[in-house]
Amino acid sequence: MTEKIKTVLIVTISFVVACFLLAGLNAITAPIVSAAASSQEQADYIGVASGNSLGLKEAVEGVASVNYRLEMKDVNGKHVGWVLDLTGSGFGGPMRIVASYDLSGAIIAGTILENTETPGIGTRSQEPGYFDMFTGTGGQVPVPVSAARLSAGHVQTMSGATITFTGIARALAAGSDYIKSLGGTR
């Protein structure tokens, strides 16, 4: 009986020590991981800005799918559009998308910030060129929210990941509608 108690105590103490070590490791690495994620997010914002400078990140309240906005200015300081941080709904859950828009609401560029999509299928949205099917839409041309509005090549791109495509498209369309509601102003 005492041998069993001794074994249980050793295992319990080992477990407690491991928990404290992991908590300490997390306390050390959490700020580093957070800084890296923030740095990547900023790089993604800059990446879709197409060479334009960005203003401060402003929260957007009460608009479905739109989380934040950043004003885009050209080299002369003229307001030329917006970068939006959006949320779409994919097969694996919420997706964070960042996209740039001109003042008419037309999409300039986009990328995925975060997703939990199925590797190899839903993650096609992270491949270079995926957002090309949306470029130029949203202003005068509606954002394609179904395969029927896509060219044959773009249908192949979204094939097998229809829910991911639809989630991205709807978020981008909501972003375009938001930009249009601003009326081309700040």
TrEMBL record:
A Gene Ontology cellular component where this protein is annotated is:
plasma membrane
Q: Which SMART domains match?
A: FMN_bind
Name the GO terms of the biological process aspect.
electron transport chain
Q: Does the record bear Phosphoprotein in its keywords?
A: yes
Under InterPro entries, the record lists: FMN-bd (IPR007329), Ion_transpt_RnfG/RsxG (IPR010209)
Q: Which Pfam families match?
A: FMN_bind
User: Mind listing the UniProt keywords for this protein, alphabetically?
Assistant: Electron transport, Flavoprotein, FMN, Phosphoprotein, Transport
Q: Which residues form the FMN-binding domain?
A: 90-179
GO MF term set: electron transfer activity; FMN binding
Output the superkingdom of the source species. Answer: Bacteria
What is the name of this protein?
FMN-binding domain protein
